[in-house]
Amino acid sequence: MSIKVCAGIVTYECDLNDLLTCMQAIANQVSSVIVVDNGSSNVDEVEHTLAKYKNVIFEKNNSNAGIAKALNQIFEAAISEKYDWVLTLDDDSTPPSDIVARYLSVLAERENVNARTGIIAPLLISKTTGIVSHSKTDQDRCITSGSLTNIDAWRRVGGFDEWLFIDEVDYDFSARIFKAGYEIIENTSVKLLHKVGDSKSERFLFWHRATGNYPPLRKYYQMRNRIVVDYKLRRYSVFKIFGLLILRIISTILFEDKKRKKISALFKGTKDGLIKIRDM
User: Fold this and answer.
1) Contact assessment for residue 9 and residue 22, using Cβ atoms and an 8 Å cutoff
2) Residues 22 and 89 sit within 8 Å (Cβ to Cβ)
3) Contact indicator for 182, 155 with CB cutoff of 8 Å
4) Nearest to residue 86, comparing CAs of 119, 38, 47, 53?
5) How do residues 113-141 score in pLDDT, each as one tens digit?
6) How far apart are CA 177 and CA 118, in angstroms?
7) Which among 111, 91, 98 is positioned nearest to 11, based on CA atoms?
């Protein structure tokens, strides 16, 4: 079995040390690393950091086109370079030194039983809390970072939904991959160091939880896009959405900073999501 694998990274206002750590971990595991910068103010520094790696294909967007657009650019570049699979990584994620070999081993095993694999996903280790979690949280739901994705499957479902911009992009994509008849596999032997927002572990009385502590703009997109993606996938329920809104407001009040701005963003995201599905 001959499978061509490249890596893809989207950068946006990234920490250069994080990017360098990521590149050091992945550059020698693949023949190409496709990097798309989404209009970063430090794009020159990003380009300089990448210059030492001869197998980097670097594309620059003039402005932030959104994670979905940049991911599609990565897959389009991978197709032009005749790759079969893309390993997508966040610029602040750190993959293990044998992630590609472990994923290829899974593909080899599944080829023997003629399995139809769309995505292989890792376990996650939070960089800030050390908590280990699943990147695949349902049979059709996984995150993009650390996942190896079948380019044929990406092409079949029409790529990532660029309207979503950021948040729920990966869940929408993986659900459509699954609906198209592909399997999503979690390889628990692969553990990816991963950063989730400004995550921290918090306690209020007997309630203990890890919170992403995302900024207000991300709260907006998380709420807006959750409504739209649920509607697209025929999982929408007005009771579920408003229940989710209440839970997120309570969590923000108890555990996070910038409470007023974040709660306002949650309400605005809910309003805009409802307007969007009314017109769908």
Assistant:
1) yes
2) yes
3) no
4) 119
5) 667 999 999 999 988 888 899 999 999 99
6) 7
7) 91
